[in-house]
Amino acid sequence: MKKSFIALSTVLSLVLVSCGGNPASKNASPSSTQAAEVKFGIDTSASSLKWKGSKSEEDFHLGSMKFKSGSLTAQGTENVKGEFVVDMNSIKVEDTGMPDDKKSYLKKHLSDKDYFDVSKFPEVTVKVNGYKDGKLSTVINVLGKDLKQDIPVKMTNDGSKATISGQFELDFKDLNIEGFKVNTEKPEETIKSVVQYDLNLVLLKK
């Protein structure tokens, strides 16, 4: 009788283990292994957007712009969505060795109708709808027109702070901007419609 009881107990134990499994695993829900959705706000003082416009490899200008506002929601680096606003009045020329009066002239030139018509379009909005394979899916509204662009960036998110950084190019050719049109009289003086950018976004949990 005693041997039969021990054998029965052993069988019951095996059945319970096989059916119940690890109690910790049983109680864990799929969502517990996923990052929580966090809403971030841009740290405008720590974020930057630098630009480089050129005629050639040797002839170019450097500068920067500031972000006016921005927010982002993300689960780790998934389900990334948000919107950012660039203040076009913040255009700054930063050529090394260029006199201040020439910097002011170039800033005014870039702000005029031949380029970004800042008085009429003081902001550029950037809508973000996803981050996949190292690229941020964006729709950038410039001069009232949308440019769709997958921007190569590196994104980090530790739950309290997120960063997005990378270098990319935007081609403004399709926007029919006067200043980027080919100079038929002096082709070598043509300003390239492709502008290079260096992005560094810092976002803090709200």
Query: What is the CATH T-level topology?
Result: Lipocalin
What level of helicity do the residues show? 10-25%
- Rg value: 27 Å
Strand and helix order: HHEEEEHEEEEEE
SS content category: alpha+beta
CATH top-level class: Mainly Beta
Instruction: Let me know the CATH homologous superfamily.
Output: Lipid/polyisoprenoid-binding, YceI-like
Number of helices: 3
Distance between the termini: 68 Å
Describe the structure.
There is one protein chain. The protein is elongated. The model is unreliable at 1-19 and 21-32 (pLDDT under 50). It has helices spanning 2-20, 23-27, 100-111; strands spanning 37-42, 48-54, 60-75, 78-93, 123-132, 135-142, 145-152, 154-157, 161-171, 194-205. It is 17% helix and 48% strand. It has one domain (34-205): Lipocalin. With 206 residues, the chain is α+β, with helices and mostly antiparallel strands. It has three helices and ten strands. Strands 1, 2, 3, 4, 5, 6, 7, 8, 9 and 10 form a ten-stranded antiparallel beta sheet that branches. Strand 2 (48-54) and strand 3 form a beta hairpin.
